Structures are given as structure tokens and as C-alpha cells.
């Protein structure tokens, strides 16, 4: 019992030293890795010296203390360099003390330090976290206790028997306990602080860690560039390979970026899938050159669970040139540039310009005002007529939403529809469009004329579970026949969730409505994909219509029309603007067309006047004098 109490006092004294050393750790983080290992080794070495000066004396030159435990924990927590420092300090002092127990004591110190170092290397290579394996310090403490007990074979039988009788239980109990306590104070306390400064996945410094360095560069008016790189499609990797697959990708990206840093460059894991890089002394041109070179290195395929992945990066760039910018403003500029890069397409780089901030403010203003536009009656519908090309008969109308902003004037749907989709305001807005268009159809007596009303549907609307039910309610309340309502959906709508979209389309067909695939030819359509969806019409994108009569690419347009006709879909051409286009679309037997040649989209008042004056459109146009067009 006396020996147990003495060892506990020894442990308590060592813990006090380690707790005091914890206060040094925030400063230690500013050192490089070898420097940190040297300090950890020196810390455990110093604790070993204290322990050896408070030993349990057994015989002349034979003592029992925590020296081997401390040398082993130094290797386990700090690695080989830490273990070497501790071994030199503790082993050297044990050699200085001399006596019968010197040789086995030094052997135990060395064996514990080697074992700890070996475990540290294994954990580092396998990227395991020591603090999550609670049983490791227990087993490690038992291992060192067994080494100590085995070392008694060095002594004469009477001394060995006394040691085994008096110290077997204390060593097997208190060595594991001391290992757990030391493990806690170093890994839990130090690693917890470390995690506030460094990213767990990439081991890169967090923004908070580098904030002070960047601020000092600004305070000293030292020019540098700030680059924020966004890893595109990281979510897709996570979906396929799980979070660990995404983490492996981020670690590889971090490694390549770190290898490409210029002297004194800094890199940080910034937000979930962004990296922030500072390039000291770089101007705009030098930064763009660095980005191009770095993207080449980053474009080399990444191997994740045996599968190669090509990864692209959106990049925002801001340059600090010693003016009166703050660090916060500089990051805002880089993030603004990044946002524009992401909106510009894949793998784009955008340098910051002041006009980008104005554009962001404009978009933010639109997003805010969009919430009230419906209640304030700022939306209206315009209607563009569609004609059958074979007969010249009015076939129907497409309803197109317009926003008349009180400050900005007419806002293009291409600007506010994406915002409405992001905020899900497209659901009430789309419902209003559907109801208003059906009411207009009844006002125009389309039931009697057999003419159609086409309405565009967003992916967000389509994937709402009750959307088909809402359509059915609108048809019932308006009185419009289902076969005269045409819902237009883009190819990207289908891609977002094919199976769910297919189910929704089948439910819509049960309501009797017609379905049209819009902007055909610019997305993801394939034959197998089309045959699985119940579309009635295919709308060819205007990009295939605009060059008819002016380009040899007309053959592609003709091939698309022939292919769609083979599949027995109706064909609609949008963007018709010239008689040449009209002539060839008729020759290629396109069914329906709409465009400025017939009429611009018209608000309700103009549409009613237009219909009163409408005469059959003169489709018997003369053959254009164009060479090289397909017949």
C-alpha cells in the first residue's frame, strides 16, 4: 500500500508539470513541426527528471518511478524525434545516477521510447486520431509495466522476488492509469486547442489561425493577392463514395496546392469546399498566371477508391495593393469574384472589379424585392402566338412571365427566375402563372377554338409532391380542358432527379395535359432517356434556328427534326425571325413555330387587338437564293 501511495504522489507531481506546460501550447503552435517535437520531448524529459528525483528506493541503485512511462508517452504522442530527446534526457540522467538498476533502467527507457515511436508512425500513416482510441494508453501502460517486471530478471533472485512481490500490482495498476492521465492532458487538451486552429481533414490552418498574419501584411501595407478556390462537384463525390471519399479528395487538393505555393505563401481551408491562398508580392497578372498553372496541376485526375475523378475549380481573385482595404473587405471582394465565377460556368476564374459588387447588390435587391412582387401585382403575363406551318392556322399561345420592377424597370426572366428557384418563391409564382394563363385561355375561348395554352414549369415546381394535384385543381376551377394545357419543361429539369420527375410526368398525363420538352438539343437528351418520358412535343432550341439560311450547320437542325419525327413527337421551333428560316422549316416538315416573325410576346390588351386583326399568315414564301442548304 505504501508503494501504491508513493507512485500516486509521483504521478500527481508529474501531472502538475504537464498542466503548467499546457499553458505553453498556444505559443508552441507557431513553431514548425520539428520544433514542436523537440519541445514535447524536452517536456517529457523534464517530467522524467522530476519523477526520478522522487523515486521509490528498493535497493542500492534500484528505484521505481515513471521514467519509462514518460519516455514511451513522449514517443507515442510526439513521434521519433520527441522520443529521442526524452531518451537522451531521461536515459542520460539514469546513467548519471548509476547503480545496479542503471542498465535495465536504460533498456526499459529505450524500449518504451521505441514502442511509442513505432505506434506514432503507424497512426500517422493510417491517419488515425489518438484521442479517439481510449484503450491504447491503457494497453501501452500495461506493456511498459510488463517490460519493467521483465527487467527484474537482471537482478539477483532475492531482490527480483521482492520486486515482483511488492510492485507487480502497483505497476500493473498505476502505469496504465498514469498513461491514461498523461494521454488526456496532452492529446485531449492540446489536440482540442489544435482543432480550433487547424482543419481536421486537410490539416491546413483555419482562417482564424492565419487571420493575424494576413492582418499584419495589411498593417505593413505589404501587397499580396488573395485567391479563393472552390472545389466543384464535391457533393457528387460524397454521394458516391461517402464523406471519407470527399475528404480524401480535399486532402489531395490541399497537398497539391501546398506544393505549388510560392515562398511565404499561405493556404487555409476556408469554408466547406473552399481554399484561401495568399500570394505575397503578386499583382493581378502574376496571380492569374499562378492560377492557370495551378489549375493544370489540379486537373490531373484524382484516384478515389480506384476510380479516377477529374475535378474543376471556380476561382475568385482579389489583390491588395497597399491601399486602405481591411482584411474583411479583401475577403468580401474575393468571395464576390468567386460567386461570379461559379455563376459564369464550370472552371472559371474571375478577378474582382468594383462593378461586381454593384452586381451583387443589384441581385440582392432583386432577391429581396422578389418576395413582395407577387403581392404587389408587379408580375404580368405576355403571350406569344404559335402557328401550324402546314396550314397557317393559329395553334395556340405560350404564356411568358414579365416583371416590371418599380425601380429597375423591366427585369428579364433569365435574371429573376433563377433567384426565385433558389429561394423557392418559384412555387407561388409558378402557381400564379398557371392560374392566370388558364383564366386567359378561358377568356380567349380556347376550348371552342381547340387552341392550346403553354406554360413553363420549373424543376422546383415539378418535384413538389402535390404539383400534379394543383394542376388538376386549376383545370377544374378554370374549366379549361386538360388537352389544351401544355406544360413546358427543360432537359435540366429531368436530370436533377430523373426517377421522381418521370413519376410526376406520368401523374400529369393522367390529368390530360400535354407535355413539351423545351430547349431540346442543348442539354442531356438521349434516345433511351426520351422514350422513358411521356412527352408529346419537342421544342428545338432557338440556337439551332437562328443560323438557318446563313450557315452550313443547318444540316444539324434538319437532322434533329428528322430524328424527332422518327420518334413521332410533334416539333416546335422557337425563335423564328426570318422568311428564310420559315421556308426551310416548312421544307423540313417542322410542325409548329413561334417567333418575332409572327409576333413578339404581347400583354393581354395587345393580344386581344392582335387577334381581331389576325389574317392567315402568308406561308407561300418564295424560295430563298441560298447555296449549300440541304434539301
From TrEMBL:
Keywords in alphabetical order: Cell membrane, Membrane, Transmembrane, Transmembrane helix
Predominant place of localization: membrane
A GO term, aspect molecular function: phosphorelay sensor kinase activity
Keyword field contains Metal-binding: no
Domain GGDEF, chain residue ranges per copy: 222-354
Top-rank lineage group of the source organism: Bacteria
Classification via SUPFAM superfamilies: EAL domain-like (SSF141868), Nucleotide cyclase (SSF55073)
GO cellular component annotations of the record: plasma membrane
Domain EAL, residue spans: 363-615
Subcellular location: Cell membrane
Key word Membrane present: yes
Listed transmembrane segments: 7-26, 38-56, 68-90, 102-122, 134-155, 167-186
Any one Gene Ontology BP term: cell wall organization
CDD domains in alphabetical order: EAL, GGDEF
InterPro entries the UniProt entry points to: Cyclic-di-GMP_PDE-like, EAL_dom, EAL_sf, GGDEF_dom, Nucleotide_cyclase, Rev_trsase/Diguanyl_cyclase, Sig_transdc_His_kinase_LytS_TM
Membrane topology: Multi-pass membrane protein
One Pfam entry name: EAL
NCBIfam families, alphabetized: GGDEF (TIGR00254)
PANTHER family reported in the protein's UniProt record: CYCLIC DI-GMP PHOSPHODIESTERASE PDED-RELATED, CYCLIC DI-GMP PHOSPHODIESTERASE PDEF
Protein name: EAL domain-containing protein
Organism: Cohnella candidum
Lineage, opening ranks: Bacteria, Bacillati, Bacillota, Bacilli, Bacillales
